[in-house]
Automatic annotation (TrEMBL):
Part of the ABC transporter complex XacGHIJK involved in the uptake of xylose and arabinose. Responsible for energy coupling to the transport system. It catalyses: tungstate(in) + ATP + H2O = tungstate(out) + ADP + phosphate + H(+); D-xylose(out) + ATP + H2O = D-xylose(in) + ADP + phosphate + H(+); L-arabinose(out) + ATP + H2O = L-arabinose(in) + ADP + phosphate + H(+). This is Molybdate/tungstate import ATP-binding protein WtpC. One of its GO terms (cellular component) is ATP-binding cassette (ABC) transporter complex. The keyword Transport applies. Its EC number is 7.3.2.6, 7.5.2.13. Belongs to the ABC transporter superfamily. Sulfate/tungstate importer (TC 3.A.1.6) family. Belongs to the ABC transporter superfamily. Carbohydrate uptake transporter-1 (CUT1) (TC 3.A.1.1) family. It is found in: Cell membrane. Residues 4-226 form the ABC transporter domain.
Amino acid sequence: DVALDVRGLTKIYPDGTLAVDDIDFSINDGDFCVLIGPSGCGKSTTLHSLVGKIPVTEGEVRLGGVDITDAPTYERDIGLVFQDFQLFPHLTVGENIEYGLQRLQVDADERAERVTNIVEMMRLESLADRQPEELSAGQKQRVALARSMVLEPKLLLLDEPLGDMDYKLQKHMERELLRLHRELDTTFVYVTHDQTQAMRLADQIVVMNDGKVEQSDSVERVYNEP
Ligand code: ADP
Ligand code: ADP
């Protein structure tokens, strides 16, 4: 089944910049999709359009068959993990994870259960009472992921989440991400400009260049065909 279907998506910024130029792609349910391309090719603009942070100029976005092109962000069922994590500095790890559930007015028992489950899955038990400033980059990333995943989105977008980490930590976090992807059964869209990362992570690759989608296919076909 198709999870995400993007048709004719175009974004022209108010200053006239054509950042995304009539792109089409779709992602199958449960796939780990990597959106790749050089800096300035329109990856962030695409991501922000999917999540509803910026209005699109033209085109259609469907999630699970539902047209969400003009839906408000909070109704989209899409999680976004930022490059710099953006944890709330004044809340503990546990409170950071619970925050979105409170805003959705999920009742206290269910909140506690969902937070406990995700904390276990992410192996954050020993960190639940810590403040974000006490955490390493890898730990912060796990908290940022937990905070998105606890809302059980249909689609999780990750905006270069391993960009600032050293190589060893990056490899470790890649393995964690792949494990989580298997366990959570969620569709991932992971943005990067790093081809080696894409080859390690992706089921499917969407290659962008200069505002266009150049290729959208399995990792084998994108990188192994002549
Ligand atoms: P990437 O994420 O691949 O680096 P972006 O989506 O950030 O690419 O940018 C695509 C193009 O749109 C670039 O030319 C960039 O300068 C431009 N751009 C991004 N944001 C804005 C904005 N708010 N206003 C005008 N131009 C923008
Ligand atoms: P990223 O690619 O990770 O989004 P950038 O440094 O490209 O980071 O962009 C940071 C912010 O600046 C974003 O909000 C983006 O929309 C905005 N931006 C990027 N390029 C331009 C531009 N040419 N004009 C105006 N705003 C821009």
